[in-house]
Write a structure and sequence with these properties.
single chain, 341 residues, alpha/beta, Rossmann fold, Arc Repressor Mutant, subunit A, 2 domains, AB_hydrolase, AB_hydrolase_1, AB_hydrolase_fold
Length: 341
């Protein structure tokens, strides 16, 4: 299953990158933390999660302003209004009138805000790992510590956040996710997003949501307390609450199969057979390893004893086989799959 990358421009001039995967009725996905459409597609666990959601649906996801392929907002501070503008830009570009909407983590707050304000556009709503009131997500002391660390030492902060968001990730996936965060946004953008997350207050609007809603939360989520998920469901009259096991906040880490199966059932989709992600030959893995080391095609050829044009052909075959657009995706995939076998 491939993804098509496109760009849209908001009324304020912000360029928003979005990706389209699969076919069928539209499902718009609002991510929570920093995102990068290309690098996320290179992480096998995350890609498998999106492909599971896209089986029977046209999955549309996007990079928020200042993240991944999207440009920073020109002047406006990071806010819910900016988030809603980005979502509206993608919906308009995709020419959608009515669609299913899913938000994860901070994206749940964005999706809930849209559903409350634009009820006629949302046929079904899924909220994963969300919260109703940001001040209750963590103590003020912890919030100040996290914000200060992100601002002062982005490298160390990405390690800490990987531990909070994905405690069940294996070493390779954790290393790839840590790098992924640093490549997705600047520390300034990360701080602004965290400040907005801690400032979320959906309590006044949750009663305005009328779409059939699934609120799903992991029982021991280390980033968003289970009680916050219950609070969302209690305040949305047509909501159903589903608690699943696990402690990782990232939806694709841990028991992702139960999560996607529950979401698909709510959306009226049949059970999905586990897909098989594309793999590389032994020679192609050698080439991928050298790309991860930063080698050019000429250097790859020298290291492997082949012509530069042969090395170039290997790189192109890897891109086609894996549905990648860049060498950075190849490098990220190699790190996420554990490097040398």
């Amino acid at each position: 299953m491939g993804q098509r990358i496109a760009m849209a421009t908001s009324p304020a001039g912000t360029r928003i990158g979005y990706a389209v995967t699969g076919s069928g009725p539209p499902l718009v996905y609002v991510s929570g933390w920093l995102s990068h459409l290309e690098l996320s597609w290179a992480l096998p666990a995350e890609r498998a999660y999106y492909e599971a959601l896209a089986d029977g649906r046209t999955l549309i996801r996007y990079d928020k302003p200042g993240c991944g392929l999207s440009s920073p907002a020109s002047s406006a501070p990071y806010s819910m209004a900016l988030e809603i503008e980005a979502l509206r830009t993608v919906i308009t570009a995709a020419k959608l009138d009515r669609f299913e909407l899913m938000g994860a983590s901070l994206g749940a707050a964005v999706a809930a805000t849209w559903a409350a304000d634009q009820p006629s556009t949302v046929s079904k709503l899924v909220l994963y790992g969300g919260w109703a009131y940001g001040l209750e997500v963590a103590s003020p002391q912890i919030q100040r510590h996290v914000l200060g660390l992100v601002q002062e030492n982005w490298g160390l902060a990405t390690d800490l956040l990987a531990d909070i968001f994905a405690p069940d990730a294996d070493a390779a996936t954790r290393a790839a996710f840590t790098h992924y965060q640093r490549e997705s946004a600047t520390p300034e953008t990360a701080v602004a997003m965290l400040e907005m997350a801690y400032g979320v207050d959906l309590r006044p609007i949750l009663g305005q949501i009328h779409a059939p809603t699934l609120v799903i939360h992991r029982s021991r989520d280390r980033a968003a307390p289970l009680a916050q998920g219950r609070r969302l469901a209690d305040a949305i009259v047509p909501a159903r609450f589903e608690e699943i096991g696990g402690r990782s906040h990232l939806p694709y880490i841990g028991d992702a199969a139960t999560l996607t199966r529950t979401i698909r059932r709510f959306l009226g989709l049949p059970a999905r057979r586990r897909g098989v992600l594309p793999a590389l030959t032994a020679r192609q893995r050698e080439v991928a390893a050298l790309i991860a080391q930063g080698c050019t095609n000429r250097e790859i050829g020298q290291r492997l004893g082949i012509a530069e044009r042969s090395a170039e052909a290997h790189v192109e075959r890897i891109r086609l086989r894996m549905d990648f657009r860049s060498r950075a995706q190849i490098a990220a995939w190699y790190v996420a799959t554990g490097g040398p076998n």
